[in-house]
Amino acid sequence: MSVPILLVVTLAMFALGAASPFDPAARYLGDSVGNATTEDLERIRHNIGADQPFYVQWWNWLTHAVTGDLGDSLSQHQPVLAVISERLGWTLLLVTVAFVVTMALSLVTGALAAIRHGGWFDRAVTTLAYAFEAVPVFWLSLAMIWLFSLTLRWFPAGGVSDVRTGALSFGGVLSHLVMPAVALAVSQVPWFVLYVKQSVRTAMAEDYVVGARARGLRERTVLVGHVVRGALLPFITLVGSRFPELITGAVLVETTFSWPGVAAATTEAGVALDFPLLAALTTLATAVVLLGNLLADVVYAFADPRVVTG
Amino acid sequence: MLLAGAVAATACGTAPAAARDSVVIAVNPEPTTLNPVLGFAPYGASKLFDGLVALDDKLNLVPALAESLPKASEDNKTFTYTLRQGVTFSDGTPLTAEDVAFTYQSVLDPKTNTTMRTDFAAVESVRTPDPRTVVFQLKYPYATFPQYTGLGIVPAHLLRGKDINTDGFNRKPVGTGPYKLDSWQAGERMVLTANEKYWGGAPKVKKVTLAFVRDDNVRATRLATGELDAAAMPPRLVDRFRNQPGMSVRSVPSADYRGIMMPMGNPVTSDNALRRALDLVIDRDAMVKGILGGAGKPAFGPLFAESKWYEKSIEHPVDLPAAERILDEAGWVKGPDGMRRRGDTPARFTVMYNAADTVRKDIALAFSSDAKKVGVDVAVDGLSVEALQKRMDKDALVMGWGTPYDPDFITYKIFHSSFAGKGWYNPGRYHNPTVDKLLDEGRTTPDEATRVGIYKSFQKEQAADPAWLFCVQLDHVYVMADAWNGLQQQVEPHNDGLAHGPWWNVEKWVPKQ
């Protein structure tokens, strides 16, 4: 199932590029394009194979890719594999931490808001959730830089290590990670909080919860063992489908905080019409989304014994 | 969270008071290659490489890897360089004539994806009679050729037989320059360390960090926190730094100009009288004040006002009556609505600008309202680069160019008819036989005094038959920490970035006590 999706996605990407008005040769040259003559552009277009029809370019890319050769990035002037391997770790770190923070924060606050429905906590959480849902993530990042880097001087404003010494240490990375991870998490939390709150409230009205209460179980046992567990099921499915959102958010966060990850490279590859890099990154992103859905299915099976995979 | 806060407090405190032998410079955009053959730091000024020659702060040609300026043959077709003795690449290998020949042959190889080729179109062969001598044989006489030989020299032994377009060298280069690449974390920063064995003496600033920060606002904030020492800034963001102790705002004149390119493929913009009249109408002082916030000066021609090649007589004040007279005499008659037409042709054309560039947009709008005063209707159209490129043989365009080097660099390709329609060079297909002749002479005449005369005549001829209506010459604005002595100001070219800025001679800085 995944393979045909990947084929279609990458072919569509090459087709989109061919239909766009951008000249890959001009993008290849980057800043030095101002010095290019028409002959230079033609020569380079031929050298990088951009003068061939898009399906031929795609086929060339594909036949090399299956042998493990992802080609050379046109905008970075180095092998695609090198571009990705240099940056992937940083993105995984950022996205994983942001994801864990998002999950923890939205489950706890969402459940508490549902249990104390209508109380001041619920109203505060709901209001904040709507407010942050409306804030663009790059604006949030800028505001955080202003507050925590410039005014309070708690955290550095960008990069992954101290810009002056360049030393890469655990504590250093941690302090650089806080702001981008929190910015990314805060941009994702509102949607999850509102969802968790809603499904916990629905679960509280379910027969099995009423039944549990009637059996005289402790309130704590009812909430954790029955309500939250029941509310978790649809939530898990949605986590998988929200993965693309997280990746989109990472693009903006990485760019603002000079985070050397693969998401920032995606925008660069996009505007530079860097097909080899873009194809590899698209494949990677598609694979991540497919994997996210697969994982959701697996976790679902664990959380709900009624589901039998096989 | 608390732990992270404590760590961060030590990591980004205020700048230390002691002498600083390191500097952090914000750079945008991040370079995509560090190989001079592929276009990195095209006219020298790279900290990792040296050319045969270099430019000093007054933009005079000085020897670099060559021990003296080249010897030219009688006919200006052969240039002979003798290499400096004892120069080594940062991997310890000695520099030889082979490396120079390899560098130039790579630029000329059609398989190399570089735009530098056009600059060396005159080269027929590069010979190396002995390990210290390089001889350039040209196809035609070219007196200004040495000006182009600031191109950084790459080591042949690391690149021969490799694919220069993709080789790992491009991101891990080895050169002869005052600095060596220490590390490059793509998307974050690049660290250069001093080359202690540099032939010009070991730099006092031992470490140069180039941080890649794309957003102007983020750059300003990180400068204010003390994380960065220097950065280019748009003029609107520098005011907060003017009174900040330890920081200074530096305005550096550039040869970077903005003007309106008038294409010959349009019946209105190709009319000589109309072009001359509009040249008299542009309120350049208002543009400098209103659009650049004072960071610049009026421009009347392609050569920058501080240069010895500049012809001052082309400067003129705004003169609406004279413009009206020229238009009347040429048959552009005013209609009842105050707008002019000649026969069936209304005096109407479009000025395009790159929609992403606000300065260019403001220039287009100001020009349009100036033209309206004499009855010429100028529509403005903001487009993407790709869209306007398709129309620039027919529609006028706000363009920018300018290098402070030899006038041949910025006149020949832009005004000579042999470059008509070649990419960005002469998109309006300007063709003036007198200009062609002067530019050919300027290129081949060796005597400098004669050349000054030739380029002065060229500027007058261009003003009498304008290919461009020049508007403003920009200053580039930077914010810098005051921690070093030895900064020199050098007039900058159109493309700034890594290679230019107040840090162009960082290898000569001395930390303040």
UniProtKB/TrEMBL annotation, chain B:
One of its GO terms (molecular function) is peptide transmembrane transporter activity. Keywords: Signal, Transport. GO terms for biological process: peptide transport. InterPro entries: Peptide/Ni-bd (IPR030678), SBP_5 (IPR039424), SBP_5_dom (IPR000914). The keyword Metal-binding does not apply. It comes from the Bacteria. GO terms for cellular component: ATP-binding cassette (ABC) transporter complex; periplasmic space. The keyword Ribonucleoprotein does not apply. Residues 61-418 form the Solute-binding protein family domain. Gene3D superfamilies: Dipeptide-binding Protein, Domain 1, Dipeptide-binding Protein, Domain 3, Periplasmic binding protein-like II. Belongs to the bacterial solute-binding protein 5 family. PANTHER family: OLIGOPEPTIDE-BINDING PROTEIN APPA, PERIPLASMIC BINDING COMPONENT OF ABC TRANSPORTER. This is Protein XP55. It comes from Kutzneria albida DSM 43870. The lineage of its organism: Bacteria, Bacillati, Actinomycetota, Actinomycetes, Pseudonocardiales.
